[in-house]
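Because discrete structure vocabularies remain unfamiliar, we turn briefly to a single example record, giving the amino acid sequence and backbone structure tokens:
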Amino acid sequence: MPKIVECVPNFSEGRSKEAIEGIANAIGNTPGCTLLDVDPGVSTNRTVYTFVGSPEDVVKGALAGALAASQLIDMRGHTGEHLRLGALDVCPFIPVQDVSMEECVVCANRFAEALGATLNVPVYLYGHASTRDYRKTVTQIRAGEYEGLEDKLEKTEWEPDYGPAQFVPSWGATIAGARDFLIAYNVNLLGTKEQAHRISCIIREQGAPRPERLAGVQAMGWYLQEANLAQISMNLSNINLTPMHVAYEAAVKQAQALKLSVVGSEVVGVLPKSALIAAADFYIERDGLFILEEEQKIRLAIDRLGLNSYKHFEPKEKVIEFMLHEEDSEPSLTNLLLKDFVRAVSNRTPVPGGGSVAALVGALGSGLSSMAALLTYGYKRYEDLDPQMRRLIPPLHKLSHALIPKIDADSYAFSHFMEASKLPANTAEEKERKKTAEREALYNAIAVPFSVAKDINTLWDTLKDLAPIVNIQCLSDVQVGVRCLQTAVWSAYYNVLTNAKNVEDAQYKDQILTDIKAELKVMEDASKTVLGLLDSRD
């Protein structure tokens, strides 16, 4: 897969259409860069740009945006609700796909060095790119803001990482760095700026210890004149510690304590799909809902978080997975029409082969069982079975979708093994590199079909409970589904056996053969029981 880095420069201009568009054009016209989002704020007088590309291209895109800004922004007259240090205030680089944090640190340094040298302005490093504890965070570096920068630059401890230690009135200073994915998230409040800030001081991580504090959350309050509402503005720096819905509910709780009304929320920039799915799963569990489809989960999250209340929230324009172009990715078997997939299997080529077919047949088997369960749910004649169906349907539905990526994964694994086998082996170093690549590719080619068998074997208890009560009209569908699952496990078994023949590590080889035979035995015993239960209903 191609390496993808996200860059989210924050420029101190949110009112001038000419400046906003000029910077956007400079970034968007940089070869290799895809501009995903431009989010200006009038009251904050700040615009957040989001774009992606290769590590080399995003550095060029960020520099192009900065050069445009140097002609379009003059900090000497800047005012706004948001804290700021310079015209290009913050410029983080974030790993998205097949990129390490270390590579993003390199991006930050290259950009900072180029910016400092080209515009002759001071640049500080933050986050993973910073090597000094007292200036790791944006908050630490931005203390005193633009107005205090001239005095700050005279202090030895605040000498910039790149560029001169001199105050440039029209620019200020820039903070560049590398960080994990962050969600800029604002909760809308029908109240005053001071009330919004009061709530932010209660829930943000910084401050005296108290139970209401949220880990990894920076927050402040401001008022948006153009929207006639206040906002609790948050940066969620670790959505695993504090997911978006947790931050929202915490703000709602504090607002209710002050007898204030929260009227939805806003995402500035883009966010990962997982943040919306996590929110949906929370509300599904809390409210006792039954929702399976990803599209419906996203709709639920948008509704519960009120993401349409201030600005329209369009998932295709805000969710990063939906926005990334796929033309640079490896060809996907799952994007083929059914007839074309069958033709691809029947061609005189080794891929797609038995492993891909195993994953497909397994997905069809669990899908058929899910269909039969769904056709038992929601009907008045089976109303007494609804609680049981709510429990049985999710694992069947989930696996039918989870096995789809493994159709491609098996094909990729074989292709990567063939690529490794073609590596040069003229020197001792090349021979060792080739041997390592072949071993890693071979183990992956074993792991994919093995995981298919193991995943399928998680369904048998569910199917044992479904078989006696499923809609009698769907009995044959479940029977066919079980036979598909049997075939998928057998197919996975044969693929593991074939690939294991090339394994040199005797201990690993013995273990994987023992494990796959155990999975085969689990399938045979469990499927026999399920089929017996289904046959008894004929």
In short: DSSP finds 19 helices and eleven strands in the chain.
